Amino acid sequence: MIDKYGREIDYLRISLTDRCNLRCIYCMPEEGVKSLSHAEILTYDEILRICRCAADLGIRKIKLTGGEPLVRKGCASLVKQIKAIPGIEKVTLTTNGILLAEQLDALLDAGIDAINISLDTLDSELFKKVARRDGLEKVFEGIEAALAHPGLSLKINSVPVIKEKENFIGIAGLAQKYPIHVRFIEMMPIGFGKQFPFQDEESIKAVLEEAYGPMHAVNERYGNGPCHYYEIAGFKGKIGFISAMTHKFCSQCNRVRLTSEGFMKGCLQYQKGTDLRGLMRGGCTDSELKKAIYQVIWNKPVSHNFYEAKTEQDEIRGMSQIGG
C-alpha cells in the first residue's frame, strides 16, 4: 500500500484493550478511565478479519498493544493466528512487562517475533510514583525471562518523564549490561501527555555521552518503526531515540493504528479515520472492508502538527484509548 504522499504503509498497530494494570501519569488518571465494555471492543475474530484484509493490501507487520495487551485473555492464541495469515511477516508486542514472565512461554510457542517493554525508571519508589502502582520487580522478572531466549528481540521503551540525569544513565545502562536496545521516546502532547514538557533527544544524548563516552550513529534498523540508533563502546545493545517532536519523521511513517473498539486512524494527532467495527457488524463484505482500510491508508495525513494551533480535528482521547 502506498499513500497519496508516496509512503509505503506496511505496519499496523492494534490495540487489544483500553484496560491496563498500571496508571502511568502521562497516560491516564489515577482512578483510570471508564473502560469499554466487552461488547464494544473488537472480538479476536474481528481482529483476524481485519488482519487478513490488511495483509491482502500489503500490511506485513503487526504490533499488538493496549492499554496493556496481556490483561486480555488469549493474547498468545491471537498471535499464533495472526502469524498464520499469508503475507504477515512479523507479529510483535508492546507491554509494561508486569504479566510477561507468566505468559512468555505461550507467546514464544505462538511465534512472537519481538517484545518491547515500557520502563521509565529502575528506582522502585520512582516507579510507583510514575505508574501509581507497584510492580518493578515483576517487570524485571519479565526482562530476565525474555533474556533467557537469545533469539527473541527485546527492547526497552522509556518515556523520559523523570528528568534526573541519573535516571537516563540508569535506563541506558541496561543496554550496556544486556543485549537489549534501549529507546527514549519524546513525550507527545496527546491526552495526559499534554501536561508534561518533552525531554529532547539532544539533551539526553549529552547526558549519556558524559557518562558513557561518544555515541556513534548506526544505519541499521532494528524494528518496524522510525527509531534511529547509536552505539557506545562496550555496550551489548544500542541506544535509540524516537523523537517525534525534535526529529519529525512523518515523511518516513509507515503505520496506521486500530483502536480496541475498531476505529482505524492514520495519525496519532488527528481524530480522522474509519469505524471498521461498525462496518463489520453492519454486514460489510471483505471487499468493502478492504476499501475502507484502503481509504484510511490513502488519506493518511502528510504529518502531525503538534507545534501548530489546535483544531477541531485534533484527537481528544488518551493514549490508553487510542493504543500506545
Report what the structure shows:
With 324 residues, the chain is of the alpha/beta class. It has one domain: TIM Barrel (Alpha-Beta Barrel). The chain is 31% helix and 17% strand. It has helices at residues 44-56, 75-83, 100-110, 124-131, 136-147, 165-177, 201-212, 276-281, 286-298, 319-322, and strands spanning 11-15, 61-65, 90-95, 114-118, 153-158, 181-185, 215-218, 228-232, 239-242, 255-258, 263-265, 273-275. Strands 7-8-9-6-5-4-3-2-1-10-11-12 form a 12-stranded mixed sheet.
Task: Give a short synopsis of this structure.
The protein contains ten helices and twelve strands. The protein has 324 residues and is of the alpha/beta class.
> What's the architecture, going by CATH?
Alpha-Beta Barrel
The total count of helices amounts to 10
Helix content: 25-40%
Q: Work out the number of β strands.
A: 12
CATH class identity: Alpha Beta
Percent range for β-strand residues: 15-25%
Instruction: Fill in the CATH topology.
Output: TIM Barrel
For the largest beta sheet, what order do the strands appear in spatially?
7-8-9-6-5-4-3-2-1-10-11-12
What is the radius of gyration? Answer: 19 Å
Total of domains: 1
What would you call the shape? Answer: globular
Structural class: alpha/beta
Mean pLDDT comes to 89
CATH superfamily: Aldolase class I
Comma- or semicolon-separated keywords:
324 residues; TIM Barrel; 31% helix; 12-stranded mixed sheet; metal ion binding; alpha/beta; iron-sulfur; globular
